[in-house]
Amino acid sequence: MLMPVKIDFHQVEAKHSDIHAELENWARWVKPTMQTWISPMFKQYRSKAWQWHAPEHKDVIRSLDAMKMEKAVYHLPEKNRAAVRWAYVYRCTPSVPMRSLGVSNDGLMMLLRDGRQMLKNRC
After folding, report:
1. Structural domain boundaries of the chain?
2. Could you give the CA distance from residue 46 to residue 60 in angstroms, rounded to a whole number?
3. pTM of the model
4. Contacts of 68 (CB under 8 A, 6+ apart)
5. How far does Cα 14 stand from its chain's mean position?
């Protein structure tokens, strides 16, 4: 019996490294808008724990570049758009998008790779 080859979905080809950096910036910009519901009582609560811990350094989000990338991702074909959003924003197990898109491991990787290439060509 043949064992399926394990695919690393986080592997990025060298030619896609620049668009990968842009997509990660876009993902950091998109993620804060995906917050769950917060009780109004705690909505503006700020913890005082900051005074006891070292400050956390976060990557700067380039909002204008992220907005341009959102527009470019939106214009991708449906399956490529779903694969790119899965890989950078949702980051759940691969079985979820594979089932919803009706593709195999190789097919999902191909959609992701093709999506990156289309974005590189457009941007």
Report:
1. 24-29+61-123
2. 21
3. 0.77
4. 123
5. 18
